[in-house]
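User:
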Amino acid sequence: MGKRRKYKPRSFESDGRPNDTSANIYESMLQSKAFKDLTTKQRELYVYAKGQRYGKKKPGKDYKDYPEFQGDELFYLNFGLVKAYGIYTEGNKGEFYKNIKALVEHGFIEVVSSGAKTHSKSIYRYSDRWQTWEDS
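Assistant: Predicted structure:
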């Protein structure tokens, strides 16, 4: 069997820069009760979280001796990163944490390790609990 060819994004998907990543969101997620219940800002935050899935620094590389930090479904996300993306400013740090909590409550991500006490990067895991989420 031959080696699988790397997908080349089309011009409307990417500006062509090397190591560009994607954030796939499937129709089933877009139509889910959980996704529809999120605010616009929470949806935007999730898209940026999905952008961490491919080609970004993963916790497993930093914590090689810790099995709980291994796995392709784990990613870093912190206020500094989303601030750099321009979706939050220093003045709305509280909103960022509120929106992270909403993504957890709606079943899109799980907290693996909170960096709050140690002033380190928080580690999250993508979750499929959104599929069975019910508004309470």
